[in-house]
Amino acid sequence: MILPILAYGDPILKKKAVDIHTSYEGLEELIKNMFDTMYQAKGVGLAAPQVGHSIRLFIIDPSPYADEDIKVEKLKKVFINARILETFGKDELFNEGCLSIPDIREEIERKDQIQIEYQDEKGQKFSETYDGIAARVIQHEYDHIEGKLFTDRLSPLRKRMLQNRLDLISKGEIKVEYKMKFPHKKKRKSA
């Protein structure tokens, strides 16, 4: 089932998500629906807060970037209760976008390597290191479960310059090709 993606301005997107147990009710269906939603919206990652669940769960499939980084060709993963232990390597800029903030892309600086601990959907624990595009996508989705958006990483001046466009997104005054829920959309009055 395709879920509505919460738009910029929804308070859930700014809330730090909570840990869950893999016996979380409806987890398997939520993960399946998140993948369906992400693919339908042509995304490479999606966090549970973006679909209204303030839990530490995100998914990734950065395979559309395989021509730039072959290591992501089959990297379809579920991250539960993730904790980034370390970011390291060099700082790199990348033009990021977000399904909750359609039509805005910005150059965001992040470290090019991470070490992360997480559980998969079966509860198995992992501690892994990622680099390149995988590290970038994971950090972006991890920010979501920490209550951060990529726009929080912009300079105050750049964010002020984008504020009118961000306000339009929160009001639903944009054209988008996937199902969204807008926090400040005015309800139409019936005649």
The succession of helices and strands, N to C, reads EHEEEEEHHE
Largest sheet: 5 strands, antiparallel
Rg, rounded, reads 16 Å
What is the CATH architecture term? Alpha-Beta Complex
Question: What structural class results from the helix and strand content?
Answer: alpha+beta
Number of helices: 3
CATH fold field value: Peptide Deformylase
Mean pLDDT: 96
Tally of separate domains: 1
* CATH class descriptor name: Alpha Beta
Distance between the termini: 32 Å
Please identify which CATH superfamily we are dealing with.
Peptide deformylase
Q: In terms of per-residue confidence, which ranges show pLDDT below 50 for 5 or more consecutive residues?
A: none
